[in-house]
Design goal:
Length: 181
């Protein structure tokens, strides 16, 4: 399965081949949908694949949905089988652009950039925007930021029995250290 996802990612990012690209296969993406007084709803993927075209700011990332790990195996199992339906929708993809990105202006001092694009999760595309902090150091590009996603926007149904324990707005955070391949 990992080889299939990696092959799909390579084909997906093929358009970036001729550009000056920075990438990582160890990007960190987390999401949290916790509510006070209930068990934390938090998951983390440390194997997100991301590619940044440093010539024009185009960025794309892909995660195998099963790579998101929770504190408890039962919560992870429910997420994969009942909500994300990973057998039917095995990956989540973001395609977008870092607005006004200019690699020549990157320094070791973090700068704020707007990132706009489309998130495909559960087979549904939804426009998202984010503010990212980006800087360059030791030949690498560092990028971190976050945005809010709503399960309802991606046709994810949360049963009434647990809907009071899961936030309607899911906080998604990303953290990338990208290098030239």
């Amino acid at each position: 399965m990992k080889k299939l996802i990696f092959l799909n990612a390579v084909l997906f990012f093929a358009g970036f081949v001729s550009a000056q690209k920075y990438s990582s296969q160890k990007g960190n993406v987390t999401f949290e949908a916790s509510l006070p007084l209930f068990e934390d709803v938090y998951a983390k993927d440390d194997n997100n694949i991301v590619v940044l075209n440093a010539d024009n700011g185009e960025i794309a990332s892909v995660s195998a949905v099963k790579n998101f790990h929770f504190k408890t195996k039962l919560m992870e199992e429910h997420f994969n089988e009942s909500y994300a339906e990973t057998a039917k929708y095995p990956k989540t993809i973001f395609k977008g652009k870092v607005v006004n990105f200019d690699k020549t202006k990157l320094t070791a001092s973090p700068q704020k950039y707007n990132v706009q694009g489309t998130l495909n999760f559960h087979g549904v595309d939804k426009a998202v925007s984010s503010v990212a902090t980006i800087y360059a150091k030791d030949g690498k590009i560092y990028m971190q930021g976050g945005f809010v996603a709503r399960p309802a926007d991606h046709n994810v149904t949360i049963p009434k029995m647990v809907s009071k324990k899961v936030a309607e707005n899911v906080n998604v955070q990303y953290n990338y250290v990208m290098a030239k391949p």
